[in-house]
Amino acid sequence: MVRCQIEGRGIRNPDLLAAMRSVPRHLFVPEARRRAAYDDAPVVLGHGQTISQPYMVALMTDLLCLTGCETVLDVGTGSGYQAAILSELASSVISIEFLEALATEARLRLADLGAANVEVRVGDGSLGAPDCAPYDGILVAAGAPSIPPPLVAQLAPGGRLVMPVGSAGVQTLTLVHRHTDGATETTTHGSCVFVPLVGEYGWYP
Question: According to the model, what pLDDT value does residue 205 have?
């Protein structure tokens, strides 16, 4: 998976590649679909949610430019796989899931893997988690019509926010970089398709 799908597409960060190799992706996939765990595609979790394609997980994580000392907000916990990858690369991770059933399963899974630096919460991820802000990195694994203003407000100087932005059917992977002077710069990184972000600043308030 890592050699063909991730390195093969140009991602070179050795710490990220090591994290992708060390986290057992099949444990985050429903047992009935585990044969597809390492395929070059998202996998259905149930509840209308998916675990993202491995390359997309790697690309979004790579865009955060983590060095190991950051506090990261992960919006859309799902199975917990993205949070597990982030836990290998950041100091602490706050992960928010709208669906309590998924949050409970992810919390147990992450605990079993020893990801003690991840806190899984249930709530509206489009509002972020202001009690732990500011964040050096914010990753949103669900699409919204625009970048939620509360997330931008919770981004630390020098921090990066990456998420899909666009229609409910197709989005553009978008990066917001807050410079140390407070100014923000937005760049785009290709087309993608994610499940809708549910919440006040998503598709379904």
Answer: 63
